[in-house]
Amino acid sequence: MKKIFTAVVSVILLMCLVLGCSAGSKAEAASVKIGVFQPASGDNGAGGKQETLGIQFAHHETPTVEIGGVLYQVELEIVDNQSSTATAPSAAQALVSAGVSLVLGSYGSAVSIAASDVFADAGLAAIGVTCTNPAVTLGNDHYFRICFLDPFQGTVLANYARDEFGASKAYVLAKLGDDYSVGLANYFMAAFGEANCIYETFPDGTSDYSSYVASAKANNADVFFSPVSTEAAALIIDQAQTQGLEVPILAGDTWDSNVILNAAMGKNVNVNVTTFYQEGAAPTFDSGIKAWINSNAVAKSNNGGDDKVAAVTAMGYDAYYLALEALKKAGSTDPGAILSILPDLTYTGVSGNIAFDENGDAIRDTAFVKVCDSETGEWVFVAQQGI
């Protein structure tokens, strides 16, 4: 009996050792955190979710990265900055406290600017995905971005208004206090000619845009330009239909969304946008993310209920793979090491070649121009345009 007892104890001890070693291996598995600083609520929540989807799909494809000869599991640390400049710093601090190695985001220039000092104080590199206002990278060495900038985008839109529609007078509507909206409006007007523009702003919390559409009609504007959130855009489109606004509506990258397609469906509106990517430019990516969205109910909901590929999603996808390249080139998860190699980092993604200038801005000189087909609910590619 004693021998049997001893044998049983020995087996139990052996099992404990084996299980202990297995648990220890899992506990010691290397991991690296990438911060995802995006709005999932507020005015820019729809766009933020779509940008995050690109990052999540890329992570789904490639959840590991080899850094310095060691295979690391990548963890996405996602925070909601709520589209709010007041909330942005605390959301950024949450990423710092979580120990991320670098940050991706945000959709929305204003929240990126508001969080910038938090990342700077922590010595963290932040890679903007579609935050287009020049002030995001201006005067600092920690913020980079992979998208074109608003001075370029505003000029493309102004040229398009003149060349495509023969416009000589533009009505321009921006959201008061929003860096992206006001900034892009000003760049458009500078290129179009301020004397040729009627400029108005609306305050936060506005839900009735009837007076602004009426103003555009009363001033006999040839085009209606409004670089605002998708939430505001959908309401503007409703008013354009109600009041019979017959002139073309122009906007920047924020309007490249199925929210806009759905809002324009069946309406007599002519919506034109500039953006970073056109579905069809990278067929393998398009088919892969569509299959993933259709197999994932949460992803489909975050994409607005269908599988249309927004440009911000493609940009989020590229940003994730650029982050992996940064980790590999740095050979370390240390934020300082990553920050030091970013200026010379290059990558070719589905949205094109990515490289940074001396300010940390992407070297990009073309934008996709597309128009909404309100009968089919699809974007129609018009041109790939520079200045």
- Assign an overall shape: globular
End-to-end separation in angstroms reads 91 Å
Please give the count of helices: 13
CATH architecture descriptor of the largest domain? 3-Layer(aba) Sandwich
pLDDT average, as an integer? 93
The stretches of 5 or more residues where confidence is low (pLDDT under 50) are 1-27
Strand adjacency order, main sheet = 8-7-9-10-11-14-15
DSSP, total strands = 15
Structural class category: alpha/beta
Tell me what the structure shows:
With 387 residues, this protein is an alpha/beta fold. The chain folds into two domains: 31-148 and 281-356, 3-Layer(aba) Sandwich (Rossmann fold); 150-275 and 368-385, Rossmann fold (3-Layer(aba) Sandwich). 45% of the residues lie in helices and 20% in strands. It contains 13 helices and 15 strands. It has a seven-stranded mixed β-sheet with strand order 8-7-9-10-11-14-15, with helices on both faces. Helix 3 runs parallel beside helix 4 (109-122), helix 5 (150-165) crosses helix 6 and helix 8 (230-242) runs parallel beside helix 9 (258-264). Residues 1-27 have low confidence and may be disordered.
